[in-house]
Amino acid sequence: MPTAAPATAPTPAGSPRPRPRPRPRPRARRPLPGGPALAAVLKAEGRLFLREPGALFWILGFPTALLVILGLIPSFREPSADLGGRRVIDLYVPVAVLLGMIMASVQAMPPVLTSYRERGILRRLSTTPVRPLAILGAQIALHGAAMIASALLAITVGRLAFGVPLPFARPGYVLSMLLMTGCALALGATLAAIAATTKAATAIGSVVFILMMFTSGVWLPVQAMPDLLRTIVGLTPFGAASQALDQAMRGSWPNWSYLGIMALWAAGLTGAASRWFRWE
Question: What is the pLDDT of residue 161?
Answer without folding.
Answer: 93
